[in-house]
Amino acid sequence: MAIDPKFFMIDKDGAVVIWRFYYPPKNIWTGETAQEFNDLVEEFYADPDLRVGIMTSAMPDVFVQHFDVSILVQMGEQLQKAPPPQPTERPKPRGIYRRGPKPVIAAINANLAGGGLELTMACDFRFMSRNASAAQSEVNVGILPGGGGTQRMPRLVGLPKALELMLTGRRVFADEAERIGLVTRACDPLTLMPETLAFAKALADRPPLAVQHIRTCVYQGWDMPLEKGLELEGQLFQELVKSKDALERMRAYVSSGQPGASARLAAERAEAERVWKERLAKKQQEKK
Predict the structure, then answer these.
(1) Domain that includes residue 212, residue range
(2) In terms of C-beta density within 10 A (0-12 exposed, 13-18 middle, 19 or more buried), how is residue 287 classed?
């Protein structure tokens, strides 16, 4: 049964679904918003007509402010009165947090902090507007990032930089975030969604089973010893190479004479030159 969302506006563009978070006035993240988003992501995983998801904000001035601190205050007070038995069992991951079979992109159009940044780090890719800034700022209220930040951030930016950002809580803007690996791409505000959507459509055009297995190899293999990761790669490679889709594509490629990449590279070079000329013209115009 289709979900009737309370906190998200949903658009579809071919095989791409776009979730726009809308919880005014501050776009604060809560248990209820998280549950709805995870339900939407699970629905996306199960829909054979959809291949890529994009999560962004419907509000121009805030992406996700942070997790609702008032809920954390209540949690702390309850724990003071009745500490849970140890160890506390972690709930089974759902939605964006379980690394399902399809990629999800965060299009960060405005400021975010705390749980909002942790949410984006659970996505496969992050495109960030140069109008936006991000902070892992839990230290400022005496707690640690409890939504995966202490584990995901070091895997993205390295341990020293992750420690700096989490222990100071300082904000980073898009260009620095791209430079250190926190986001995939920094974008001008007006091109954020067009660039994100173009990237999403490019992913959607790729063979879905290959996309799924590559992601499985990378994410599961990351936490394995090298030999185990190579075993997983070999198993999934064999599954793909015998698949109907792969055999059809490889036969077509062989029949065409196994052409080189010259034509594709020429097209990519022309596109790169076009983008460079546009940016140069924009800079010259700004100097006038």
Answers:
(1) 207-257
(2) exposed
Q: What six digits make up the tokens of 67?
A: 């997790």
Q: Which residue has the tokens 């890529």?
A: 52
In a domain, 263, yes or no: no
Same domain, 146 and 173: yes
Q: Are 40 and 180 in the same domain?
A: yes
| The token pair that represents 177 in the structure block | 């975030």
HSE of 168 in the Cβ direction (CA atoms, 13 Å)?
10
> How confident is residue 61, by pLDDT bands cut at 50, 70 and 90?
very high
Instruction: Give CA–CA dist 220/192, Å, rounded.
Output: 30
| Nearest-angstrom CA–CA distance, 117 and 275 | 29
Based on the fold, state whether residues 26 and 148 are members of the same structural domain.
yes
Question: Rounded CA gap, 169 and 133, in Å?
Answer: 12
**Model confidence band, residue 236 (pLDDT cutoffs 50, 70, 90):** very high
